[in-house]
Amino acid sequence: MSTSLLLELIGGFAGGCFALWLASQSLPSPRNSVLAGFARIRPTLLSYLTGPGKLASFGLLLLRLSIGVMMIHHGQEKLADPQQFASTYVASLHLPFPLFFAYAAGFSELIGSWLVILGLLTPIGALALTGTMATAAYQHILTAGLNIYVLELVVLYLGGSLALLFNGPGRFSFDAAMLPQVLESLDSINPAPESGDSAASEAFTPAAIPVEAFDRVG
Questions:
Q1: Which of 41-50, 55-64, 80-89 has the highest mean pLDDT?
Q2: C-alpha Rg value of the chain to the nearest Å
Q3: 156 φ, ψ (degrees, to nearest 5)
Q4: Neighbours of 11 (CB within 10 A)
């Protein structure tokens, strides 16, 4: 990559970040709306992140490290020579813009691996790895048929990524560590009613007004 192209990329990225920052100053913060969405799935979130016990969480940690560390070098190889990967693998899928999909596969594996290793936004990382491995399995079947020696590694990566996607990262992860702050934020936008307020609201419900009162008015 030439120095001028690198400077153009850095300048474009910096300009885009500055434009997003300017736009964010005039827009309302989406924090409350995002937290409100999390409030609807609170029980599922608790079960997903804290459901596995310590022993199961340790097993998930080993699975995350095994898949993430091994998948990183696959992403690095694709990004080292994306044109070769596009010509060798993506072209056989007859997809448009093969070079774009080569970059997408490389970054998905590289970034997804780090997310899985850290247990940070684990569903996104696991989904990225699942997508690339499912595409790779389809490509192998399309070109080599049901050859077990070609498919075995891809299927192992695919199965492990799906296991992390469905079971979560376990307790030894950044997602689980950040859960208390998320729950505290949810409680701040959805405070529980006080006992006095609850009693007062029950006292003035329509069901609490006797029917005779309406008869006297009539």
A1: 55-64
A2: 26
A3: -65, -45
A4: 10
Q: What is the pLDDT of residue 71?
A: 92
Could you tell me the two tokens for 55? Answer: 């022993």
With CA atoms as reference, report the closest residue to 88 among 143, 156, 15, 24: 143
What is the distance between the alpha carbons of residues 39 and 117, in angstroms, rounded to a whole number? Answer: 27
Distance of CA 85 to the CA centre of its chain: 26
CA–CA dist 165, 125 (Å, integer): 8
CA distances from 117 to 63, 65, 215 (A): 9, 5, 70
CA 53, 55, 60, 61 torsion: positive or negative? Answer: positive
CA-CA-CA-CA torsion sign (114, 115, 118, 119): negative
pTM exceeds cut of 0.85: no
Contact present, 27 and 175 (Cβ < 8 Å): no
